[in-house]
Write a structure and sequence with these properties.
With 151 residues, the chain is an alpha+beta fold. The chain has three helices and nine strands. Strands 5, 6, 7, 8 and 9 form a five-stranded mixed β-sheet that branches. The protein has a four-stranded mixed β-sheet with strand order 1-4-3-2. The chain is globular and about 50 Å long. The relative contact order is 0.19.
Amino acid sequence: MTRPFEVGVVVRDLELMERFYCDVIGCRAERRSRVPESVGGPAGLGGELVVVWLRVPSGGCVKLILPRSAPVSAPAETLPAGRPGLSYLTFHLDDMDPVVAALPTAGARPLSDPPVVRAHGRRISFWADPEGNAVELVDERGHDPVPGHSN
């Protein structure tokens, strides 16, 4: 491989999703462009596209894809993680607490109760983003913060 991994997410509301992944998750918008129907059509993405490349701080890229010529239908609900195909995006964080605190006001909803669980010495949290895509947050620290102390 010559570059970090990229993943494409087809969205209904490009601005909402860009704000969510940048302001809450911590990605950085790198570029925006139109992709002609001659590329988007054969790729099965509905013709002309608008694509925003979001750089993940640790490397890699999330591409938000808005089809221009065919509306994106809304899923009935968050798709189950156990189905075939892409299940969720994982973001590794030094401190998930500020992100988890910001998610509900950004339109995300927790996919478990409690929203943060321990597994294999780590803290893990699964959320549905504002359009229902599953997002996993992983905090390698594996311990709860001490009240009144910053990490």
